[in-house]
Structure formats: C-alpha cells, structure tokens
Amino acid sequence: MLYEFLSANRDAIIARTRAKVAARSAPRATEEELKSGIPLFLDQLIAALAASDGPIDSMADSAGEHGRERLAAGFTVAQVVHDYGGVFESILELAREVNAPISPSEHQTLHHCLDEAIAEAVTGYSRGREKALAALETERLGALSHELRNALGAAMLSFQSLRSGSVGASGSTAALLGRSLARLSTLVESSMAHVRLESGKRVPTGACRS
C-alpha cells in the first residue's frame, strides 16, 4: 500500500524534498520552511491515502496556512507550488527506485491531494497578499488625508486672516496661503499619478490647475 510506503520512507522523502527546494535560486530555503509545512502535508497525505473516505479536510487548512506563511517569508507563489511539487516528485522518484507499486486509485488520490494542497496554498497566498496590499493602501490613504487636512487647514486660516483685513496681501500670511495651496496641488497631483499607475488609465494632467 502506498501509505505504508510513505510512512516507512517519510524521512527519506522529506530529505529529498529538502534538497529539491534548497536547489532553487532565490530566496534560499530555510530549515524552518520544511520543518513546518512540508512534513505536515506529507503526514496528512499518508492519512488521506490510508482513509477509506478520501482526503481529509485539515489538509486544505494546513495548505492555506502554508501559503500565507510563505508570503510572510517573502516567497513567490511559484515557490509555494514548488514546495508541494517537490514532495510529489520525491515520492514518485523513490517509488521507482525501490520498485514500490502504486495502484491507479492510489495514484489518483495522490494527484487529488496534491491538486487540493496547491490550490489551497495558492489561495491562502493570494488572500494574504490582497490583505497586505489593502493594509498598505489604507495606510497610504491615511497619510494622504493627514497631509491634505494640514495643508487645507493652513490655507483656510490664512485666507480668513487675509479676508478680515488684519494682515496685508503681500505679507507672510499670504505667502503661507500660497505655499498651502501649492502643497494641496502637489498632493492631489501625486494621488492622481498613483491612480494612473494602478488603473492603467490616463488621467489628464493639470486637471487641478486653474
């Protein structure tokens, strides 16, 4: 039985996978990377092959968590897939070397487990990336709002002073008003440039200039 072969050769399969993952160019693999996700995936794969009702649900959860962990560690989505592909390749290579038979149903289950693990890992990776990007965008918008509020507040106070007649139109208060308006214009232009880069659509420049 395949699950018995995997159980008996667990350490050898992990070692082979470690060698495959370590051979990639960048970023370099770490012991922590394989100490968590890959052995867990292999153990759950053994349980899935031993079970009569097919793959276990916890495999999807651990694969999704593995994807999020790889994102946090700075890996690409291709490297996430590489981790699981390395396990699959190691199993088949070792089975061929020792002439361990793999039945059609076991091969199908093996493929199914790998497919599910990769799909959930990529999903977990993608969701983590979207969350990180959303957090960065929220932080950017917060900083922009703060800058706009400060510039607008300075402009309004300067304008009120000028309108009241308490200061002259050519003094420091008028200069402050000019600088505040220029800062507002710069912030809006910068924000529009960001929108152009994100959307790929060209927003006419100078739209905020009179």
Q: Helical region count?
A: 7
Give, in order, the helices and strands: HHHHHHH
Strand content: under 5%
The CATH superfamily label of the largest domain reads Histidine kinase N-terminal domain
Return the CATH topology of the largest domain: Globin-like
Q: Tally the beta strands.
A: 0
CATH architectural designation of the largest domain: Orthogonal Bundle
Q: State the shape.
A: rod-shaped
* Radius of gyration of CA atoms, rounded to a whole number: 29 Å
Describe the model:
With 210 residues, the chain is mainly α. The protein has 2 domains: 2-132, Histidine kinase N-terminal domain (Globin-like); 133-199. Helices cover 79% and strands 0% of the residues. It is built from 7 helices and no strands. The protein has helices at residues 2-8, 10-22, 31-50, 58-72, 77-97, 104-164, 172-199. It starts with a helix and ends in an 11-residue tail after the last helix.
